[in-house]
Amino acid sequence: MTAGQLFAESGFDGVSTRTIAEKAQVTLGSIHYHFGSKENLYIEACRRAMSAKKSNGFAEALEENPALIESPEGQAELIRTVVFRTFHDYFRPEREQWERKILVREVANPSSAMPRISEQLFMPDILATRDVFKKIKPSASDEEADIWMDFLHAQIFFYSAAEDTFCLVQGKAYMDQELYQQAARATAKAMILLVQLPLPRDLREH
How confident is the model at residue 190 (pLDDT cuts 50, 70, 90)? Predict the structure, then answer.
């Protein structure tokens, strides 16, 4: 997606619809006809970047196996599954780099579209996560749930934002799939221990 690539490189304010039309080899009028405004086009680019995830976090994992929430061992496996899937979805080799970069840029430097992006793209996942966290810890507040989930968000953001720097400083091979798998294991282990659940066997072994 040409617009997504340009927004990822230059930000919402750094790209005009005219530039996007020229790069995409379409008319300026066609962009306004299909999207109505640059903000709508930008939100659609962010939506595409978000939808590139093959999993939707806790809601999808529980839909696949509702019984996981019924025991401490199941809850730990649920957390492990969501963390592993999220790392895989964001850092799988075939995913286009701009899809990560546009989301990192928006989080680090929110555009005027952030209120709509938050409402339409971020909040559904946040609400599903809060619901699961409160099933694990019934007395927990929304703030506790959000801070807990930020352990995962922070790791994803850090590795996405620092990807180019790490490759330059430590070599291209540094940012490989093995590193992301190790980071996923460490993140899952931390999140499970924070809610005092038993570690799945593979996490104990590592």
Answer: very high
